[in-house]
């Protein structure tokens, strides 16, 4: 179980730059990512393991509280590193430690307060994170038990704790591991990626009290330095527009099935075609209006924690599962069900 935030095709592009420090940082991140993948022999999924389906929980997580442990790798590539802040301890000097601590808390809060879920496994799992991993490490990842953040190279990427959606995205891979556990390849892999983006966006919106109309729907905002012409890694509102830069290229995500990318790279385009279900969720949220974590988020949450998905479900099966989830929660003549169907039709997944 290993999921990194920055997709391999972007790191590969950075690794070819003439700017030696940036190229070397990207090469190290690529090499490190490949090594970790080989060691774990699985990517974002534990093959052969059945998902632990938990009964859907409703809102009402007022009594639930996180248990957080933040460690500092001190620029080594060893985990977990030195423990620097645990639950209830005061802020420290290091902003990366405090950002990680707060980000884990805001992610816990969304799942607890909106869906009554007690941490990633639903049973109070300790939230662990390590900051300052490696030298100028250009990535952040979930390794199956902990979140790990690099400091970035400082020229293209800033430190990865800066973006709350990075934390929400990676921890949702932890939730996925305990729920639908979609295979990290092809369409189920793109859905796995998309579900992480959906709840990452919802973590930020819940934290800042933004409605679907007010929210940016950007994933990884604040990660690029001001030398990059881009606002984030991905946009759910307008996939393909998050960045367009001479150095790092243009955001390659499609928004609809018309732009579907057939590729063997990136585990069959998991970070590319995730733009399609991402945009479907955005369209649903805007059609329903108000707070996206309420009805739209509830439908997605019911879908990944329910029994209708298989580990290899593709886009059409996922779309049908969201429609079934909307119908069972809100009824067959409901506005919610109509909006779900309309959203998937707009992106070309349903006819
Ligand atoms: Zn991911």
UniProtKB/TrEMBL annotation:
<feature type="domain" description="Peptidase M4 C-terminal">
    <location>
        <begin position="180"/>
        <end position="349"/>
    </location>
</feature>
<dbReference type="InterPro" id="IPR001570">
    <property type="entry name" value="Peptidase_M4_C_domain"/>
</dbReference>
<dbReference type="InterPro" id="IPR023612">
    <property type="entry name" value="Peptidase_M4"/>
</dbReference>
<dbReference type="Pfam" id="PF01447">
    <property type="entry name" value="Peptidase_M4"/>
</dbReference>
<comment type="function">
    <text>Extracellular zinc metalloprotease.</text>
</comment>
<dbReference type="GO" id="GO:0008237">
    <property type="term" value="F:metallopeptidase activity"/>
</dbReference>
<feature type="domain" description="Peptidase M4">
    <location>
        <begin position="95"/>
        <end position="177"/>
    </location>
</feature>
<keyword id="KW-0645">Protease</keyword>
<keyword id="KW-0479">Metal-binding</keyword>
<keyword id="KW-0964">Secreted</keyword>
<dbReference type="Pfam" id="PF02868">
    <property type="entry name" value="Peptidase_M4_C"/>
</dbReference>
<dbReference type="InterPro" id="IPR013856">
    <property type="entry name" value="Peptidase_M4_domain"/>
</dbReference>
<dbReference type="InterPro" id="IPR052759">
    <property type="entry name" value="Metalloprotease_M4"/>
</dbReference>
<keyword id="KW-0378">Hydrolase</keyword>
<comment type="similarity">
    <text>Belongs to the peptidase M4 family.</text>
</comment>
<keyword id="KW-0482">Metalloprotease</keyword>
<keyword id="KW-0862">Zinc</keyword>
<dbReference type="InterPro" id="IPR027268">
    <property type="entry name" value="Peptidase_M4/M1_CTD_sf"/>
</dbReference>
<protein>
    <recommendedName>
        <fullName>Neutral metalloproteinase</fullName>
        <ecNumber>3.4.24.-</ecNumber>
    </recommendedName>
</protein>
């Amino acid at each position: 179980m290993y999921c990194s935030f920055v997709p391999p095709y972007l790191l590969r592009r950075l690794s070819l730059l003439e700017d030696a420090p940036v190229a070397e940082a990207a090469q190290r991140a690529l090499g490190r990512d490949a090594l970790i993948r080989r060691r774990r022999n699985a990517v974002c999924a534990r093959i052969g393991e059945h998902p632990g389906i938990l009964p859907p929980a409703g809102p009402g997580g007022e009594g639930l509280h996180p248990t957080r442990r933040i460690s500092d790798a001190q620029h080594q590539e060893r985990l977990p590193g030195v423990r620097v802040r645990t639950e209830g301890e005061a802020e420290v000097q290091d902003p990366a430690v405090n950002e990680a601590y707060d980000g884990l808390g805001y992610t816990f809060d969304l799942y607890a307060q909106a869906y009554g879920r007690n941490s990633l496994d639903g049973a109070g799992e300790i939230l662990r994170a390590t900051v300052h991993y490696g030298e100028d490490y250009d990535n952040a990842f979930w390794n199956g038990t902990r979140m790990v953040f690099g400091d970035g190279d400082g020229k293209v990427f800033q430190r990865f704790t800066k973006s709350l959606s990075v934390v929400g995205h990676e921890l949702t891979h932890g939730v996925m591991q305990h729920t639908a556990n979609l295979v990290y390849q092809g369409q189920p892999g793109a859905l796995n990626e998309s579900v992480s983006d959906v709840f990452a966006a919802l973590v930020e919106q819940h934290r800042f009290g933004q409605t679907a109309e007010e929210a940016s729907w950007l994933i990884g905002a604040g990660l690029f330095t001001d030398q990059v012409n881009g606002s984030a890694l991905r946009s759910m509102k307008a996939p393909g527009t998050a960045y367009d830069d001479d150095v790092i290229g243009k955001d390659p995500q499609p928004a609809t099935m018309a732009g579907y990318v057939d590729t063997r790279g990136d585990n069959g385009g998991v970070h590319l075609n995730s733009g399609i279900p991402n945009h479907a969720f955005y369209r649903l949220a805007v059609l329903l209006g108000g707070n996206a974590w309420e009805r739209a988020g509830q439908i997605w949450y019911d879908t990944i924690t329910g029994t209708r998905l298989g580990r290899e479900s593709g886009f059409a099966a996922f779309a049908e599962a969201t429609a079934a989830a909307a119908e069972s929660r809100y009824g067959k003549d409901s506005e919610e069900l109509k909006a779900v169907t309309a959203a998937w039709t707009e992106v070309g997944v349903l006819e």
